Structures are given as structure tokens and as C-alpha cells.
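Q: How would the C-alpha cells look for this protein?
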Amino acid sequence: MIRELTHYIGGKPVAGTSGQFGPVYDPSAGQEQARVPLASRAEVADAVAAAAAAQPAWARLNPQRRARVLARFIELVRAEKDSLARLLASEHGKTIPDAHGDIERGLDVMEFATGIPHLLKGEYSDAVGTGIDVYSMRQPLGVVAGITPFNFPAMIPLWKAGPALACGNAFVLKPSERDPSVPLRLAELFEEAGLPPGVFSVVNGDKIAVDALLTDPRIQAVGFVGSSDIAQYVYATAAAHGKRAQCFGGAKNHLVIMPDADLDQAVEALVGAGYGSAGERCMAISVAVPVGEATADALVERLAERVRALRIGPSFDEATEVGPLVSAAAVARVRDYIRSGVDEGARLVVDGHENPLAGTEHGHGFYLGASLFDRVTPAMRIYREEIFGPVVSVVRAADYEEALQLPSQHEYGNGVAIFTRDGSIARDFTHRVNTGMVGVNVPIPVPIAYHTFGGWKRSGFGDLNQHGPDSIRFYTKTKTVTSRWPDVSVREQASFVIPTMK
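A: Here is the predicted structure in C-alpha cell form.
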């Protein structure tokens, strides 16, 4: 039976009224399991109105009380983490352990946000002039929105909502219509934790809902994660309507392997970071850059053996290492890239374009094998564009400088990693490489919650990043007060000179 999902507005589930629905699939089975309503502009306006009505009272609560609500929410999520992970996997396709990681990384940022009483502290300068003090305070923006992708249906909504709510804002979430059930359940858990109705709402939808959020004058800021073209569109549209925006786009993350690297460690890092979650991660390593022909030959030989042995299967099978892709369209897209790589002359060392489960009981699922290309060049489409699937390309570099320039010159600048035993090379690399996040012997350099996450170039639009201190800056506005209590017994004359520090 196909379930019919809802929106979550004003503290309760709300049935869709637009008459438009999108399918929600079980990727492991390749079958539709639910229908999600696609919101009209009027439905988005209802969610924004509920948020605008609820936000002032929420902002008036002292930060400690807001933090207690978030702490209670964390407890509730952890209490049903297993069921949430299964729900997430059933709509996305990632394995159960990976789904647990999705949820846990979101909760890390929620925990960071519970420190909001400290994080909101302003600055104070005593006696900057005779009897004059200056201090600053951080105040919430009002109503803010998040537009989040399918590949992390728990983590990224919580990365956006946690700091925003802690700062005293109301939050309207537009999650991916491909896997909306976990965000809807999180909304219910926020309510159970004590969040006032309307402070967190979920509206499902497509471009109509996105544009409604981007143009509504009551929305003060928008956070987005998705493809670079759409990130640029969201950023430009939000800015044109007077909103703050932090928009994160695509990636082409490189892993440089120096001749002195521990090759076994590098291979295992590449397999996990390149093929985990079927490559559907913005921080996936999709390009391996071995330095020197000897390093490249050894790497490809070991990597090919490991890739061929990957266990691909349903999300709920404990033996599965790589689950299905999110949709049939995603499968078709990745196959097109594989054909392109072959046509442009790359060597397809491991061919994963077929469904490895074809002919089995799971043969209708959205499965692909893992693919490995060697002798890829920067001119090839499989190098230039984000594939977002289980495909890794090996680009051979003659020396360290060439390896450094590959990620530095690519249009994307999300993350990069280097594997080496040489501290001087590692230090030089971290300082010179032109990307936003760098790993040294760490394949997926996603910072912990109290540092900031964000890419450069076409991987990020906006000057403030996700989580960490930047998130508090993004979701607040600074008010600076200059205060003086003059001596009432002294009569003062008007001054026509601009105040100075003299």
C-alpha cells in the first residue's frame, strides 16, 4: 500500500492541498512506497505565517531555556535512532550503519547549539570615552528557511535548524521530496521536546516551493545544499530579495597519494570515501591522484582488487557495504558518465555499469556496480563534472606540484586530502591548496561540529559557512550600543564635530 505523506505546519501534520504529488521510492526494491505532497505558494505562505507568529515568543525565551529544548530533542532522537535509521535507509538507500552516521552527525551540531548561552555572548568595552561604554548583542533574524538535499535527510536539516533555532529564529524546512519522512518525524520530535508550534515547520515541494521561500519578504535568510547551478540560483535569487544566503553546491574531491604514503591505508581510505553511500556524498572522494608512475601502478592494482570485492546489496542486509542509488534517474545518469569516460579514452579498469543484483529477488532495485577509471585527464567530462555515484577516477601526476595544481585549479573546491608520511609536504599542501577543507591522512575532511564546514569556488556561495561559529553569525544580526549617562548637573552645548577617539 502506498502511503500518503503530509506537510508539518503550525505544530501538526497538514495534508497537501495543491493536488500535486511526487513519488517516494524504496531504492532497495525499486518500488514506490509513498506519495509526498508538493506545496503550492499558498501552503508555503501558511508555514511562513505560522513561523512569523511563533518566533517572537521563542526569541524572548532566555538562551538557556531554548538550549534545554534542544537537549531534550537530542534525547528523543537518540531514543528512536534505530527506527529513524531504518526509515532513512528505506527512502535513501544507504546502509543502516551509514544512516546511523547521518543522524549522529546531525546531532553533533545540535549538541554544539546547546552551548548557545555562551555562543551568543557579545562584546563590551568600558569607558571608551568620558562616561561612555560600548557593547554589542546578537539578536535573531526572525524567520529563516532551509532547503536541503536527498543525500543527508537527517544531518543537513539538523545542521541548518539547530543553530537557527538556538539563536531564537523560527525555521521553515523544505527537504528533498525524494526522502521526506525523516524530516517529518524530526518535526514531531521537536514538538515533543517542547518547541512551540510553528517554530519548526516542514513544507515538501519542488521549485514552486523553493521560489516561494526565496521571494517571501518574511523570510530573512536561506540555507541551501545541492548542485552548484541551483546553489548559484538560490544565492542570487535570495540576495535579489534582500535575504542572507549560504548555499553549498557540488564537489570534485581529490585524494593525493604521495610515493611515501602507506598504500594499504590509502586504498582502504579511497574505497570507503569513494564508494560509501554509493558515492552520493558531497564529500565523496571521486578523484585519486597518485604521484609518479610507480605509485599509480601499485595503487590501481590494489584498488581494482578491492573495488571488485565490494559487497553491493540492499540497505537492510548487514553484509552490504554499498547500497542502491536513490532513484532510477540517478542510475541512468551515472551510466551516462561511464559511457562518456570510455568514449573519451579513459581506461575502465572496473566496469560497474550493470546492476549486480539483476536476476535476484532484489533485481528491481536501483543498483550499480562500482566503477574505477585509470588514465583520466583534466579535459575529460568524468573529471570536470560531479558524477555523484560509485565511480572513482585516477588522474596520474608526474610530481607533487602537478598533484597540488589539480584540485587547486578545478572549478569545485569543497574538500581535498593528501596521504603522506612527510610532514613538510603535508604542511605545504594544507597552506597552498585552493579548497575549503583539507584532510591529511584523513579521506573525508568533514570538520567536527564546533569548527566550520564549507567549500570554495563553485562549491560554496556566501561568506559564512555551516555549523561552528559561522552558523551563529549567519543566524543572528549584531546590534552595537553606545551608552552614556551624563552628569545632569553639567549643562552641555551642542557639538557640530563628528565624534572621534580623542
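The chain has two domains: 3-249+459-481, 253-440.

The first strand starts at residue 3 and ends at 4.

Upvote if useful.
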